[in-house]
Specification:
The complex is a heterotrimer of chains A (352), B (495) and C (153). Chain A is α/β, with parallel strands linked by helices and 352 residues long. Chain A contains 15 helices and 10 strands. The longest helix of chain C is centred in the middle third of the chain and has 45 residues, at 62-106. Chain C starts with a helix and ends with a helix. The chains are: A alpha/beta (352), B mainly alpha (495), C mainly alpha (153).
Chain lengths: 352, 495, 153
């Protein structure tokens, strides 16, 4: 195993006790009564997308481990697709705060939509009861094997316009990635209309576009040498692509001599993507119940079998647990973003 | 190849195959409960299995979902899967004529043959898989979608202008919701439920199942208009159905190939495959005017196509690891958990046995599925003779359940709305198929049009030979259709 | 049936016009396909309407026309009634009531048969959806309201 992976594995194993110990433990009696409350009940695990997608995969993978760590409690995955995850997010926000509803949400999605003040937003991201983070969002910029973009230099100084395959205009993901790419300043032609990242990846393989900023499936394609990885946007290592330059690293940003403004935008993107895939419950959840839920979640995320399964299937290539408290802090910090970046996000999340 | 076959027969793999097939058949019958939801549910069990076992189970289940789905199309006009929608057009009229058993056995036999053809073509295309997928891009998809749309005229029955306009309406309503090209949310009038657009299942269940239900509910009749003794099992019809499929084997194979071809294109699903296949059967039939009124060819065509398409959808999944459909995405996740890495490895000497195991599984699952289900056909066909007091609540519940799998009551409302529309159209003998076809293809048409224009510009036909060829086929098809209709008018006028 | 068909065609035309006019609120790219498809369809509907009016087949007279209209009204009433029941009483409530009422009064089955059929169907729905698939069937406004008092917080 690569050194970085060993380090990360140890990191995960050792942080568990710290994460659990660091949270303020509510009254023991209250915890017992919370445990009694959950017995023989079902928890609804809301997924904001249709079955078969990445979020659904993560939720279903977690499902049986959560049941393992919450004895005599049933966990039911409920798909609530619609409005680009907004339907589910709004619903969870107004659900009864009794601990029987939890959800997996997109950190980028809920924060970006709130910053952009999109009309569908009927929640306040600072009020959710956060229960932790599963992993961060990562991006790999992939290029076709025959494309004019062969590495970071040819990306930044290409021989012509670089064609990018894009999905989901107007979404939070789209806004974040466009902010980063635009701040790099290379001549670009955006091709819009691909319905999913898979189609965009195929477009790159076929050569009809030069690049696509894909998720971790792109890393898989790169490992199989179907495409070339050009640059990463990630806060943590990606297996097999350790030698690929990472835009979120300070060294690279300095090496490229990026302007302060650009660095600010890239840092914003990095922080936003680091919220990643989070678990949340409705606001005002009684602390003893959220404590119990968070404990079960953290135990799941540190379970060896779970980590292994996630890695092997590609559903969760790297588990990156974070406590609910820390998620909330990051969310609050991001919502107080500078007005320039805020107006950029607003513009990017409007229809074209 | 033989190695792959051997892998399947190592016990207890055959058991997993049978188990998968049975579950797949049951799931396929229940409308709306997609193969997808069940696959997702089964995924945790897969973690504990060995690769051949898991392949046998999952693929066995998936391969036959479309097989049994055709049965409810025939019996209740409720498509088990969206891909079975076209089967209703002639399958249900056959049931009304008292030929439900025959229709059901055609569904099963055609599905079986279609599935086997699909598996065969999958096996043959393995060496050229990757090259073929790379050659098909937005311009080719655009042309294929346009070809599908051009069948709207064929499906329009007696009033071609109105039929095409209905197809246009189908296209327009498919555009409701958010547009992947510009991000604009269109025609929702503020209702967030419509953001993701209208769903196919409420539309088809409403337009057809509830539309028909309202008719025999209000008329207080049973589905079959034939008077028959209550316990007669129509094995004779079963045999008629089976032999029909084999007597028309060239049509069956042709439709399977159409299904395979379309199924391999990501984003274009089984619904298109079945409708295009139906349209093709109608065009090449000696009795086209019988279509829509119980012509068995109209049952054979879509069923052969939609089973073959599963073989087609496996092509990009195996070749590149890019799933051809949502169900494939789950199967892909299962593959990766099992350590099967899609892509060039699957096509190498080491990976070939597994690849062929997959192919054999699909083929055998189809055969098994057909045999198991055929034994139940006569019993199931009796349903069409049930009196309305029992039948109507039963079908209504099935329809509502079919629409409830997303858990949104609004879907049921949509189904009811389209139910009334479908009832009206049915009463006036107006064509409903064009609406569905337009709906399925509308979005794909717009997306591929914009992608093609952005990447290749308006002169794309000159740059993409395959797209050009497809366009010629379209022009020819339209020309042929117009010619047949004019001929019909002339002979009518002379008579 | 002629008058009814004409009505349908006109209604279709109106719906298409709504799509066309709404399209003008969107950007050129977003309105390209809808406008093209919309205008072509509208044109075809108009041609059909004119053709039908010109061939001047007489409308359905008397008995038949009334019969169809009443059937249409039944269909609409049923949908509205069921839809409202669904929202208010939820899946089980609405289905239960409709099934019993319909089988008993419309189809003239015996009380026993009505109850057995309804019960079997509701049980089937419950077992399949809630037990096997874990998909909740819409609870309805009134039951949800009542249960909010019964479930312990």
């Amino acid at each position: 195993m690569e050194k970085s992976k060993i380090f990360f594995f140890l990191f995960i194993v050792f942080t568990l006790p710290i994460i659990i110990a660091a949270r303020p433990i509510p009254d023991k009696a209250k915890i017992e009564s919370a445990r009694a409350f959950f017995k023989d009940k079902s928890i609804e695990f809301v997924v904001p997308y249709a079955p078969g997608g990445g979020y659904d995969g993560k939720a279903r993978l977690m499902q049986r481990f959560l049941e393992k760590y919450l004895p005599r409690v049933k966990v039911l995955v409920k798909n609530m697709p619609g409005g680009g995850s907004m339907v589910a997010t709004n619903q969870v926000y107004v659900a009864r705060p009794n601990g029987l509803t939890i959800a997996i949400l997109s950190g980028v999605g809920i924060v970006a939509n709130q910053i952009a003040e999109t009309p569908v937003v009927k929640y306040d991201a600072t009020k959710f009861t956060y229960l932790g983070r599963i992993d961060t969002e990562k991006r790999v910029l992939i290029a076709g094997l025959n494309s004019k973009v062969k590495d970071l230099d040819t990306l930044l100084k290409p021989t012509g316009k670089v064609r990018q395959a894009l999905t989901g205009p107007g979404s939070g993901s789209y806004a974040v990635t466009q902010i980063v790419l635009s701040s790099l300043g290379f001549p670009r032609e955006d091709i819009l209309g691909y319905q999913s990242s898979k189609e965009a990846q195929m477009a790159v393989i076929r050569g009809e576009t030069d690049i696509h900023l894909s998720g971790t499936e792109g890393a898989e394609l790169a490992r199989r040498k179907e495409v070339r990885p050009i640059v990463l946007l990630t806060a943590s290592p990606i297996e097999g692509l350790e030698k690929v330059p990472n835009l979120f690293s300070k060294e690279l940003m300095e090496k490229l001599k990026l302007s302060d403004d650009t660095i600010k935008r890239i840092s914003f993107a990095r922080d936003l993507m680091s919220i990643g895939y989070i678990l949340a419950a409705p606001p005002k959840l009684p602390p003893e119940r959220s404590w119990l839920l968070e404990e079960a979640i953290q135990k799941t995320l540190h379970d060896r079998e779970f980590v292994e399964l996630g890695r092997k299937s590609g559903i969760i290539p790297l588990v990156e647990p974070l406590s609910g408290e820390e998620v909330l802090l990051t969310v609050k910090r991001l919502l107080s973003v500078s007005p320039e970046i805020k107006s950029d996000i607003k513009k990017l999340m409007k229809p074209l | 190849m033989i190695e792959g076959l051997r892998l399947i027969f190592i016990w207890p793999t055959p058991l997993a195959l049978i188990g998968g097939v049975v579950i797949g058949l049951l799931v396929g019958i229940l409308p709306g409960i997609g193969g997808i939801g069940t696959l997702a549910l089964m995924l945790p069990f897969v973690y504990k299995m060995s690769p051949p076992l898991a392949i046998a189970f999952l693929l066995g289940m998936h391969a036959v979902c479309n097989t049994s789905g055709g049965l409810t199309s025939v019996l209740f006009a409720i498509p088990g899967e969206s891909a079975n929608a076209a089967t209703m057009l002639d399958g249900f009229p056959m049931a009304k004529k008292g030929q439900a058993a025959k229709a059901c056995s055609i569904v099963l036999t055609a599905s079986m043959v279609g599935g086997i053809v699909g598996a065969l073509v999958l096996a043959i295309s393995i060496p050229v898989m990757r090259a073929v997928i790379k050659a098909f891009g937005p311009p080719e998809f655009l042309m294929m979608v346009t070809m599908g749309i051009s069948f709207v005229g064929v499906l329009s029955g007696g009033k071609p202008f109105l039929g095409i306009a209905c197809g246009g309406l189908g296209i327009l309503i498919s555009l409701i919701g958010d547009d992947p090209v510009t991000g604009t949310i269109r025609y929702t009038f503020g209702w967030i439920y419509l953001w993701d657009g209208l769903q196919l299942v409420p539309l088809t269940v409403g337009l057809f199942a509830i539309g028909e239900l309202l008719e025999y509910g209000i008329e207080r009749t049973s589905i079959s208009h034939e008077r028959e003794s209550r316990f007669k099992m129509r094995w004779d019809q079963v045999w008629e159905g089976i032999s029909f499929v084999f007597r028309r084997i060239e049509l069956t194979i042709r439709c399977a190939l159409i299904g395979m071809f379309i199924g391999a294109v990501p984003g274009i699903g089984g619904v298109v495959a079945s409708f295009v296949s139906y349209g093709h059967a109608k065009q090449t039939s000696r009795l086209p005017e019988e279509f829509g009124h119980g012509n068995p060819e109209g049952v054979l065509a879509p069923e052969a196509a939609n089973n073959a398409k599963e073989g087609g959808a496996l092509i990009p999944t195996i070749g590149f690891g890019i799933p051809g459909s949502a169900a494939m995405a789950i199967i892909l996740a299962a593959f990766m958990i099992l350590g099967i890495k899609p892509g060039p490895e699957m096509l190498s000497a080491q990976g070939l046995p597994t690849t062929f195991a997959i192919v054999w599984t699909v083929a055998l699952a189809n055969v098994l599925g057909a045999f198991i289900a055929l034994s139940w056909v006569p019993l199931m066909a009796r349903v069409t003779n049930l009196r309305p007091g029992i039948l109507v609540p039963l079908v209504f519940v099935l329809a509502i359940l079919g629409v409830s799998s997303r858990g949104y009551p609004e879907d049921i409302l949509m189904a009811l709305l389209f139910g009334v529309v479908g009832y009206v159209m049915r009463m006036m003998d107006l064509p409903r198929a064009p609406v569905i076809l337009g709906f399925v293809l509308g979005r794909l048409f717009e997306i591929n049009l914009h992608l093609t224009l952005q990447i290749y510009g308006p002169s794309f036909l000159l740059k993409r030979p395959i797209a050009f060829v497809i366009m010629l086929i379209i022009v020819f098809t339209i020309f042929w259709e117009i010619r047949s209709r004019l001929k019909e008018r002339r002979t009518e006028g002379e008579a | 049936m002629k008058l009814d068909e004409l009505l349908f065609e006109v209604l279709l035309g109106i719906i298409i016009i709504i799509f066309i006019t709404t399209s003008f609120y969107y950007s050129p790219k977003a309105r390209l396909v809808p406008l093209v498809v919309g205008f072509i369809s509208l044109g075809l509907v108009i041609i059909q309407v004119i053709t039908d009016a010109m061939t001047g087949k007489s409308g359905q007279k008397g008995e038949e026309a009334k019969f169809f209209q009443s059937k249409f009204i039944y269909a609409v009433l049923f949908s509205i009634a069921y839809g409202s029941a669904l929202f208010l009483l939820g899946y089980y409530g609405s289905l239960g009531i409709f099934s019993i009422v319909a089988t008993r009064y419309w189809f003239k089955e015996k009380w026993g048969t009505s109850f057995i059929i309804t019960g079997a169907l509701l049980l089937f729905s419950y077992v399949l959806f809630v037990v096997v698939f874990g998909i909740e069937l819409y609870p309805g406004i009134i039951p949800a309201f009542i249960s909010s008092f019964l479930i312990e917080e």
